[in-house]
Amino acid sequence: MADQLPEHPDFLWHNPDPKSSYDVVIVGGGGHGLATAYYLAKNHGITNIAVLERGWLAGGNMARNTTIIRSNYLWDESAAMYEHSLKLWEQLPEELEYDFLFSQRGVMNLAHTLGDVRESMRRVYANQLNGIDAEWITPDQVKELCPIINIGDDIRYPVMGATYQPRAGIAKHDHVAWAFARKCDEMGVDIIQNCEVTGFLKDGDRVVGVETSRGRINAGKVGLCGAGHSSVLAELAGFRLPIQSHPLQALVSELHEPVHPTVVMSNHVHVYVSQAHKGELVMGAGVDAYTGYGQRGAFHVIEEQMAAAVELFPIFARAHVLRTWGGIVDVTLDASPIVSKTPVDQLYVNCGWGTGGFKGTPGAGYSFAHTIATDEAHPLNEAFSLERFETGVLIDEHGAAAVAH
Amino acid sequence: MLLIECPYCGARDETEYQYGGEAHVPYPEDPSQLSDQEWAEYLFYRNNPKGLLAERWAHTAGCRRWFNVVRDTVTYEIKAVYRMGETAPQNGGAR
Fold it and tell me: Could you give the ipTM of this predicted complex?
């Protein structure tokens, strides 16, 4: 049988009306916004915080991702950020006193061409130099770890090996948000839902508050965690971001007995698959080519993804798609996030996590909270500044990050 | 799946096309005179509106020609199609 989900109480946080003023206002009540509030309270002693959410708590990309957590990124800056995040993931269930089913079942990234093999090995060596538990495994080892995968050489893109990170895995995304929300609430953070930010109040070059659908809220500092809507928020605040918002789709099958023990990602044929605790096969695709805020994408993208999945996992041919959905991902030109100060004083931005924001949730919150509290970058996010697009010191994870974006 | 009206071939499925991002971004007249900030603007900053966007598409599986589209980025509805060198209609959302 699939795992039992833990019971949780009916109410994990209060729903207060907004106060007239806060030390820090976080815009966006998804995983990143909640994690930022949590680390502001825990690490920096700032608890007079409001987290403003336009819809309902964690109803955006936090509810729509495929829950994969890993840190096997190529470049040093990304490896540091995602590995720190993974270490936080490892301690969070205890720290938040909430078992959100973080399951370190390993993630493999398949190689299907000689080019894939070379890039994968390069990434494994880079990971090992950065202290990340990456290894190269052969097709036979792939089969041993994941018996349902087809390693035959008679398919269009045969499996030529994979990189494997045993400490990687998945977590129950909704429960992660609820765990952060409950702890934030306990520490005095106001979580305010149905509260859309419609404008920013400024005194010269300094932000002093926000206009919202529930009235004016003064703020000492404001942090943006708007994900797909980051460009919209930045425009309201009077600056631009090098972000393009794209639809990104995912889907689940009906419930099945456990058949898939790990997480398999394939950059080349472009699908990633895990089996959720309840038993659904969870699969994600690539972004739709065009920009969009519609939270839905095109069916031909799903078709391509299914074709790849069935070739790799022949037994999936008998499974049914239960539900597909889309989120809006904020993609930068170098496929790396922006966790940074902005041209507006006391206004900070955390965005650009694109297709990989879930795994970065604690790391983003940890470093963004430091930046908000101290007005300076943490060593983890120093390289992820807005300035890098002017200096040219990009962190080019397109293709390097083990998955296409 | 979008149904896109190629100005040369007529309406075809989205899968016949390639997306080209925001339209009407001019190449700098004198690139060597740009500041780092202006160069970053040209290379990395594109409009990302929630609403109408003028954008380029190429009919790669058809006539292989580029053209412009005005599309609503929320409903994905295509409001206008016009050839390269033509100006966007009044509701074009172009900058």
Answer: 0.93
* CATH number, domain containing residue B15: 3.30.2270.10
Pull the structure tokens for residue B18: 């390639």
Chain A touched by B27 (CB under 8 Å): no
Domain-located, residue B88? no
What is the rounded distance in angstroms from the CA atom of residue A276 to the CA atom of residue A260? Answer: 9
* A70-98 tens-digit pLDDT: 999 999 999 999 999 999 999 999 999 99
CB contacts < 8 Å between A and B, how many?
Answer: 63
Split into its structural domains, chain B has a count of 1
A-chain residues near B75 (CB < 8 A) = 294
Its pTM stands at 0.95
Token reading at B12: 């075809």
Would you say residue B91 lies in a domain? Answer: no
Question: What phi and psi values does residue A36 have, to the nearest 5 degrees?
Answer: -65, -45
Residue of A nearest to B54 (CA): A291
Domain with B22 in it: 3-83
Say if B69 falls within a structural domain.
yes
CB A23 within 8 A of CB A220: yes
